From TrEMBL:
InterPro entries in the cross-refs: SCRL
Name assigned to this protein: Defensin-like protein 238
Localization (cell): Secreted
Stretch forming the signal peptide: 1-23
PANTHER family on file: DEFENSIN-LIKE PROTEIN 241-RELATED, DEFENSIN-LIKE PROTEIN 245-RELATED
Organism: Camelina sativa (False flax)
Keywords: Antimicrobial, Disulfide bond, Fungicide, Plant defense, Secreted, Signal
Family the entry assigns: Belongs to the DEFL family.
Major subcellular location class: secreted
Pfam families membership: SCRL
Length: 87
């Protein structure tokens, strides 16, 4: 009975450790933010990826687009990630 209890405790412990390791997010890599004229449109990610192609120094894998307010109304802000760690 003691060995069965130890085995069950070991299995539960291993399950917790494995799930904790899987839950750790990988680094998103380099992040670049830039503002551009115009709005995000229906597909803001595509808009930002196209805008970032103009830089040619940064290959973006994923972008987030947000409309700017106030003084910069009519502009959008792109936050893009390279997908590789380190810059």
């Amino acid at each position: 009975m003691k060995s069965i209890t130890s085995f069950i405790v070991l299995c539960v412990f291993m399950f917790i450790v494995v799930n904790h390791v899987k839950g750790q997010g990988k680094p998103t890599g380099c992040q670049v933010g830039q503002r551009y004229r115009g709005k995000c449109g229906a597909d803001g990610t595509k808009t930002c990826l196209n805008d970032m192609k103009l830089l040619k120094l940064f290959k973006a894998k994923r972008c987030d687009c947000s409309e700017m307010l106030g003084k910069f109304q009519g502009w959008h802000f792109c936050t893009c990630y390279s997908g590789r760690p380190g810059c």
